[in-house]
Amino acid sequence: MVQIVLVTLGLFALLHIVVFGRDLIKHKDNLGSGSWPISIGIGFVTDFLDTLGIGSFAPTAMLLDVTKQLDTPKDLPGTLNVGHALSCLLEGLIFITVVDVDPITLFSLIAASIVGSWLGSKTVTKLPASTVQFWMGWALIVTAVLMALRQLELIDLLGAGNTATGLSGGLLIVGIIGNGIFGALMTIGVGLYAPCMAMVYMLGLSPLVAFPIMSGSCGALMPVASVNFIKEGAYSRRVSLGIALGGIVGVIIAAKFVTGLDLSILVWIIIFVVIYTGITYIRKSRKPAAA
Questions:
Q1: Residues 186-236: pLDDT tens digits?
Q2: N or C, where is the chain less crowded by C-beta within 10 Å?
């Protein structure tokens, strides 16, 4: 099953390279505005953060706005998806290869996220995004507090000790349902990384196991989303290519950093990421929706 996941991600990577590459060659004389050094730098920083589980979309959107890299705000969604697709795929390939994870758990949770995103595009998008973000934000903060108490050995969660590399029975069903929900919530802007990190920990898995699951899930989703943006030309070609080039380097460096960390330190990093994401969701829920 691990080989099936790796081959699938490899095919998605090939699809993205072909579609993206053909469009770049077709428009090689006019790649649009933007600075190569700034775009590459943005890709490096944001995909380094993405590999740590913090996410890349929000930091990229902020940096693109500050540096005025895009001609029109309408190109932002496409630029985010096209620019970060390859680096996210690389994250998945690296973590699935180097992190010990049960094949059935890996395959099931990634498949669940894909199904969830498809169902979510038809159902969850009808929900008020601000309400979902608000309650998800508080849920993440509460979860992070429980994780911290568990780390301080003040409480015990499911008695698993956070050393398992796979799920079975009822816990596997909970994981499948959870990741399916997170995949669905991605369609209204609730990222999968932090909730997946929290769920994996709460189910007693080793904190490292979250990385191949969450990066594999998103790595399978983003290339598909990118195809339509590329076909419509609704993205910045120069900026997206710069982000992709810088992002690949950022992922390689960050992956070595993550896999070399002591697990107790990694848990505290995950707790910080989950709290940060929870606060971000609550703040976003209180802002008026953009037109």
A1: 777 677 888 898 898 889 898 899 899 999 988 887 887 788 889 889 899
A2: C
What's the predicted TM-score (pTM) here? 0.82
Note whether residue 291 is domain-resident: no
Asked if 212 and 11 count as a contact pair (C-beta separation under 8 A), the reply is no
CA torsion sign for 231, 180, 272, 216 is negative
Model pLDDT for residues 154-184, shown as the tens digit of each residue: 766 554 467 889 999 999 999 999 999 998 8
Contacts of 250 (CB under 8 A, 6+ apart): 43, 44, 45, 46, 47, 48, 50, 51, 87
Most distant CA atoms of the chain, gap in Å: 62
Start-to-end Cα distance in the chain: 43
Domain count, the chain: 1
Tell me which residue range forms the domain holding 280: 1-285
